[in-house]
Amino acid sequence: MFNQLKPMPADPILGLLSQFREDPRPLKVDLGVGVYKDPQGNTPILACVKTAERLRTETETTKVYIGPSGSAKFNQLICRLAFGAEHPVMAQDRVRAVSTPGGTGSLKVAADFIKRCNPNATVWVSNPTWANHISLFQGAGLQVKNYPYYDNVNNQLKFDDMLAALQQLGADDVVLLHACCHNPTGQDLTEAQWDQVVAVATERGFTPLIDMAYQGFGDGLERDAYGVRKMAQAVDAMLLCASCSKNFGLYRERIGACGVIAKNSQKAEIALSVMLHVIRANYSMPPAHGAALVETILDSAELTAQWLEELAVMRNRINGNRALLVDKIKAAGVTRDFGFIARQKGMFSFLGITPEQVARLQQEYGVYMVSSSRISVAGITEENVDYLAKAIAAVL
Ligand code: LMR
Description:
Elements: H1 15-22, E1 29-30, H2 47-59, H3 72-83, H4 88-91, E2 95-100, H5 102-117, E3 122-127, H6 131-139, E4 143-148, E5 150-151, E6 156-157, H7 159-166, E7 173-178, H8 191-204, E8 207-212, H9 221-224, H10 226-234, E9 238-243, E10 256-261, H11 265-280, H12 289-298, H13 301-331, H14 340-343, E11 348-350, H15 355-365, E12 367-368, E13 374-376, H16 385-395
Parallel strand pairs: 1-12, 3-4, 3-7, 7-8, 8-9
Antiparallel strand pairs: 2-10, 5-6, 9-10, 11-13
Helix pairs in contact: 2-12, 2-13, 5-6, 5-11, 8-10, 13-16, 15-16
């Protein structure tokens, strides 16, 4: 049975984790996987999460199955975070949500759900997008195509081309959009551009699927949700994939949510029943621990205030790192303009260097990033930034 198997290469992003860990050089720099790091280069557990965990241990009474939809309270709270408490789709009872194993689990549920809605649907992803998007949707048996998004040469959005491509789509198409902190480019739509994308979605009738893996890491919880809220208000049907990995720092607890908006309450209930069916046949039900922590935090005014502060610290550090890197590259004598990094948002940017230069950075300097030259700016620290800038200058 297994004799025909050929070895697969390591995942282009996750593979960097072990390569970095095994590198014995003391000056190595990890700009690979998208995880927050503090100024010391650690990924600590948020203080609000620690408190929620203590409360949880004291009050938890059972480990009995939670059911395919996960925690009803978590699902409700996460919808409020994404859409805002007063959003019309909530008042109209048009949203249903399920807890999922992380953002990736949410995307998997969405993919299987789309396949059940329309086996011939095409999923359109930005060029480029998070590489796992493509594997996930293809893995569900769906056709995946891309729309223009990022101009690698001028380091800016190809917005006119994007809009023109979306204008060709219709009811059999699903368009995956990144709510904020676009992965891998860091180049987000402005609010005015979101308005135009929303107008095309309503005109053409395609189904938007918004991946919100970084709410709070760009411009703050509310502004990062602008596109989600605007789109939800305008279209009859939409999917939302949310993750608590980054904004609650709950990476390994695997907690996210998949939301569906339907035309009315009755259709939303039918959509939920199909979602529950695909979940049962996939992983049966989500883990409960991460959801319980998020619930505990969002249900307490005190813990929520603490979370918002901790989230702001993470956001400000990441965005501060952007400006710092741009300055240090300039100070290292590089004349090429890297100013775009400071204008982009969230965890990632493309440096815009060649795969050979990326390989040299890794081999000669122990600087790790995805071969596309995507950097996770959270890995920059006051301590490593001069070394990093000089290494970049050297390979340029
Ligand atoms: C990333 O893009 O680095 C993160 O979303 C982690 C992952 O699973 O790839």
